[in-house]
Prior knowledge:
Layout: H1 7-14, E1 18-23, H2 30-36, E2 41-56, E3 66-85, H3 89-95, E4 102-111, E5 116-125, H4 137-149, H5 154-161
Antiparallel strand pairs: 1-3, 2-3, 2-4, 4-5
Helix pairs in contact: 4-5
Amino acid sequence: MVEVNTFQSIILYRMNGQLLYFAYGSNMDTIQMSKRCPSAKKVGVGYVDGWKFQYDGSDDKAIPAFANLVKSNSGRAWGVIYEMHKKDLEPLDNYESHPLKYYHDYLSIELAEYGHPVNALAYLLHEPSRPRGVPSKQYRDKVVTAAKKNKLPAEYISNILYA
Length: 163
């Protein structure tokens, strides 16, 4: 596999059966992603403006909340960008309960290292108006730990703790 080390390489990769994926929840954990999607390689970190991170719940308080992005005029959501082979999309869809819970959308993600936007696939909840919820401690800890390991901005990590 060709190593991605320039913005131009990222564009070429997408032409060879690869896609870019923007992870903003527990999939920011690169070890977890390597198990779920063996072809996934971290490209870098990035952000999307006009969206904010939050934990969305359900009407059933026994069901913990999970990460989601919701539209927000002043929002900025950070995450990890992976390149992966399209064949790994099916197993990832299964983990993300696609298409029942989440749907695919392509968002314009600013690659922090390169300063260029790229279109990357993201998973978004079908019901953007779901009530905000409380994630399990284990899930929140996994998201926060992954954000720290990927060196997301400290203020943003603090917001994840209290989203």
